[in-house]
Amino acid sequence: MEQKVLQTIKKHALMSKGETVLVGLSGGADSVALLHVLLALKPLLDIKLLAAHLHHGLRGQAADDDLAFVQALCEKENVPLFTKKIDIAYIAKEMQLSIETAGRKERYAFFEAVKAQAGATKIAVAHHLNDQAETMLMHLIRGAGMNGLSGMVAKRADGIVRPLLEVTKQEILNYCTGHQLSYQTDLTNNENQYNRNHIRNQLVPYIEKHFNPNLIHTLSHTSQLLTDDEQYLEQTASTWRQTHQVGNAMPIDALKKLPMPIMRRALRQMYFATAEYASDLGFVHLQAIIALIENNKTGTQIHLPQNVIAKCSYDRFYFEQQKDTEQYKGGLILPNAGVYHSEYFNCTLTLEIISQGEFEKFKPSKTAQAFDANILQDGLIVRKRKTGDKMALKNMHKKLQDIFTDEKVPKEKRDLYPVLATNDAVIWAVGLRRAHAYFVTKQTKEILRIEITGGKDND
């Protein structure tokens, strides 16, 4: 396996002579094998090794045992170790994220901090071929373009490298057995509490048994094909931008002439160059941007993730970074029809004026409603619930707190529900109830359709 990893390192130029490599060391079989392999290759690669371990504050004594194990291993191998303990359950609650997502964010933030502190140039993580297959399936199920379906890359621009990406989990376990390497076992990996565990423990074995026993390698080949195609398309879009983009603007006529795959990538690249922080554009965002460009009405704009606005101005299209779009935590002003993104709720709101004819075909749902726009003259805001919120139902005013209780929404999840309000009047608790006064009637002159997609990651 060491030779196989060496080939991966050379093929993807993961490390250079003289570099300092920080190994993410959980204490499990994958990371222990990674450290052992890199120690064996260290003289040949001429690299310096460090290790980092994040204690998530979960699993009680088992997590303490992981930390003690990693400390003993690094002391034995003479590898400098950086550790940190956090309360990920508290952080996940504050960030309104799942434990899994919050843990990943905090883990990589810690690795980056150690990398900067210790002067490391690369961060080596222990993702392997099985992880690649699980990632591709997870993206496919959630919905993704070619970039998402390509899976993980062996080398990222930010210094993350994956030396084990071309070896299987079984090869890693065999390596540990062959070299008599002890490691920690996280029993929660056998539980199906998280999406990835469902895929690992149930979906992959099912597909291997009933459809394709070589699924892991098949998906690996598919990943390589998609990655090659994606890189070509990205480079083509980048080259086009270099010759057409002026400052942060692009000519609309030239954009319209692009093949759709190149246009989408050029827009994504331009967005990423504008946004202050790394984020992503979903399908609904890109479709809204493309519609904006096709219509090309000067002054029209779309609100996107990371407080970025997409605008058309005469013959130019551009992105603009905005400040303080959300006036307070969870509050996003919706001044007129358009597409908006709430960072707090991680959802996209589409506001559209529709005709009576369109309304007659409209089917309201938990995430789509229509309102009498003339009554909403004071504008709208999407925010989280506030103490004292009430909603005017047909024959009564009811506290929003009581509506949550009636709908059996757990207290810890109530802040995940967007509330649409005009002034202090709640018109819609998304997914639950809406106010009676704003229903569309035959006398309604202007109808506002509001649809919400996405939402908090609260698996």
Nutshell version of this structure?
The chain is of the alpha+beta class. It has 15 helices and 20 strands.
Task: Give a structural overview.
The structure is a single chain. With 459 residues, this protein is α+β, with helices and mostly antiparallel strands. It has two domains: 2-226, Rossmann fold (3-Layer(aba) Sandwich); 249-454, Uridine Diphospho-n-acetylenolpyruvylglucosamine Reductase, domain 3. Helices cover 42% and strands 20% of the residues. The chain is built from 15 helices and 20 strands. It has helices spanning 2-11, 29-45, 61-77, 88-95, 99-118, 129-142, 146-149, 169-178, 195-210, 215-244, 252-256, 260-274, 283-295, 356-361, 400-406; strands spanning 20-24, 48-55, 81-85, 122-124, 160-161, 249-251, 301-304, 308-313, 316-321, 332-334, 338-342, 347-354, 368-372, 380-383, 390-392, 397-399, 419-422, 425-429, 433-434, 447-454. It has a five-stranded parallel sheet, sandwiched between helices. Strands 10-14-17-18-19 form a five-stranded antiparallel sheet, with no helix packed on it. Helix 3 (61-77) links the parallel strand 2 and strand 3 (81-85). Helix 6 packs across helix 10 and helix 10 (215-244) crosses helix 12. The chain is globular and about 80 Å long. The protein starts with a helix and ends in a 5-residue tail after the last strand. The model is unreliable at 325-330 (pLDDT under 50).
